[in-house]
Structure to design on (413 residues):
C-alpha cells in the first residue's frame, strides 16, 4: 500500500546543498523556514488563511519553524496535505472558544519548581527547553514553546534535580519541553548522568519529535552518549505514515541499536490522521521502524485548535478498526488528557456488553458475542458453587439457549 512505503524526503528546492550540509543537523536548524517571505517563495500557493496565520505566528502565537528536511514532506499541490496542516499556521488559531485553555492539562498548577510537573504519584515531567526543531500547530505547550506568548520559560535544572532527589517516591523522570534532543550532547549527557545518580530514579524517558523533524540529529555520537544511561526510553511523536521516511527509519534504527526502547505518541488530528486507513498504516509502519505505538491522544483543548481537533467518536472508530484487525503490538492506548489536570484517562470502545450474576457478556472485534462464566463476586464458577453448572478446574461455555443460537461461543479446554 502506498501509505506504507518508505521514501526518502528528497532535496526539493535544496538540490544544490552539499551532502555535508544537508546531513548536518545544525545546518538544518540554521536554515529553517521561519518567516512569510521564505515560505511564500517555497510554497507559492499559500491560502489567505495560511498567510494571515503565518503573519501572526511568533507575534502572539506559537512561532513558525520548519526544517528543510521536513518541509520536503509537504505536497505543494495539495492544500489539504496532512503534513502541511500540522506545521503551517492558519488564521483559525486566533479563534478561541471559552472551553479552550492556554494550559489545557493543568501543568502549571502541578508545578512545585519552575519547569517541573509532578502530577502522578511516582513520576515527574521535567521541561528542559522551550525550543523545538519545528512547531506543531496543535502543541499542548504552545503557551511556552518558542516563547511567542511571553511565557518567559526558565527551567532551573539544579532546582528540578534537587526536587527529584528530595522525593524518594519519584522513580520515573520524563524529559520533555520543547525538545530535549535539541540540547547539546554534553548537556544532555550531564543531565541524564545527574538523574541516574539519584538512587530512587529507576529510569528516565525522553519525549522527542526530533527523530521525525530532524533525523540528522540522531548521530552515532548522540546514540553512544544515550546508551550510557540505561534504562532510558524514548517516546517519539508521529501522526501520519508519510512522516516515516527512510531517513527516519534509519535514525530510529540507530536509537534501537543503542538499546533504547522506542514508543510513539500520536495526536488525533482532523484531516491528518482521523481515519482507520491512515492510522493502521502508521502503526504498522512504526513496528517496521522498531517503535511500539504507545498513545493516541485526543487533541487537548488548546486555544485556537478547533480546526485541527477530531472527535472522540472518530478516535473510538479508529480503535475499533485497529483492535483485532492488526497486531496487538501495533495498537496504542487511546487517551483523553482530562482538561484542567486530571491526568490521562483511557478511552476504549465498549467490549463488555453486560455483567450478570453468573457471566460477563463480551463482544469481539467482529461483533460476535461471547459469554465468560464467573460468579458475581468475580471468582470462577466451580463445581458445587450452587449454580449447577458442570465446571471443574476450568470454565466451560454456558449452554446456549435457543434465543442465542446465532451467537458464537468460545471453545474451552
Ligand atoms: S515537538 Fe512537541 S513540544 Fe514541540 S511543538 Fe511539537 S508537540 Fe509541541
Amino acid at each position: 500500500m502506498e501509505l506504507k512505503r518508505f521514501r526518502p524526503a528528497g532535496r526539493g528546492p535544496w538540490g544544490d546543498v552539499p551532502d555535508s550540509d544537508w546531513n548536518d543537523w545544525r545546518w538544518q536548524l540554521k536554515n529553517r523556514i521561519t518567516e512569510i517571505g521564505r515560505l511564500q517563495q517555497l510554497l507559492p500557493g499559500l491560502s489567505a488563511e495560511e498567510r494571515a496565520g503565518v503573519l501572526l505566528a511568533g507575534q502572539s502565537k506559537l512561532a513558525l519553524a520548519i526544517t528543510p528536511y521536513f518541509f520536503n514532506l509537504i505536497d505543494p499541490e495539495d492544500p489539504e496535505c496532512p503534513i502541511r496542516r500540522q506545521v503551517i499556521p492558519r488564521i483559525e488559531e486566533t479563534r478561541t472558544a471559552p472551553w479552550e485553555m492556554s494550559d489545557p492539562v493543568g501543568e502549571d498548577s502541578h508545578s512545585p519548581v519552575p519547569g517541573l510537573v509532578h502530577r502522578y504519584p511516582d513520576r515527574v515531567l521535567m521541561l528542559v527547553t522551550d525550543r523545538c526543531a519545528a512547531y506543531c500547530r496543535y502543541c499542548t505547550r504552545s503557551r511556552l514553546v518558542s516563547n511567542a506568548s511571553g511565557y518567559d520559560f526558565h527551567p532551573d535544572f539544579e532546582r528540578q534535580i534537587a526536587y527529584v532527589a528530595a522525593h524518594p517516591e519519584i522513580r520515573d523522570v520524563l524529559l520533555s519541553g520543547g525538545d530535549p534532543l535539541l540540547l547539546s550532547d554534553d548537556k544532555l549527557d550531564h543531565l541524564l548522568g545527574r538523574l541516574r545518580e539519584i538512587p530512587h530514579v529507576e529510569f528516565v524517558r525522553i519525549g522527542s519529535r526530533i527523530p521525525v523533524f530532524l533525523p540528522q540529529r540522531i548521530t552515532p555520537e548522540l546514540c553512544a552518549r544515550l546508551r550510557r544511561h540505561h534504562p532510558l526510553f524514548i517516546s517519539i511523536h508521529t501522526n501520519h505514515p508519510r512522516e516515516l521516511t527512510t531517513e527516519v527509519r534509519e535514525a530510529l534504527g540507530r536509537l534501537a541499536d543503542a538499546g533504547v526502547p522506542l514508543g510513539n505518541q500520536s495526536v488525533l488530528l482532523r484531516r491528518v490522521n482521523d481515519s482507520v486507513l491512515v492510522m493502521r498504516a502508521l502503526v504498522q509502519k512504526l513496528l517496521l521502524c522498531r517503535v511500539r505505538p504507545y498513545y493516541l491522544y485526543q487533541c487537548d483543548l488548546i486555544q485556537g485548535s478547533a480546526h485541527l481537533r477530531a472527535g472522540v467518536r472518530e478516535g473510538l472508530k479508529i480503535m475499533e478498526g485497529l483492535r483485532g484487525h492488526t497486531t496487538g503490538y501495533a495498537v496504542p492506548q487511546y487517551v483523553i488528557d482530562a482538561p484542567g489536570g486530571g491526568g490521562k484517562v483511557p478511552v476504549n470502545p465498549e467490549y463488555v456488553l453486560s455483567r450478570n450474576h453468573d457471566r460477563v457478556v463480551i463482544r469481539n472485534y467482529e461483533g460476535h458475542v461471547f459469554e465468560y462464566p464467573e460468579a458475581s463476586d468475580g471468582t470462577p464458577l466451580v463445581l458445587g458453587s450452587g449454580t449447577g453448572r458442570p465446571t471443574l478446574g476450568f470454565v466451560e461455555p454456558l449452554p446456549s439457549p435457543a434465543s442465542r443460537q446465532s451467537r458464537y461461543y468460545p471453545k474451552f479446554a
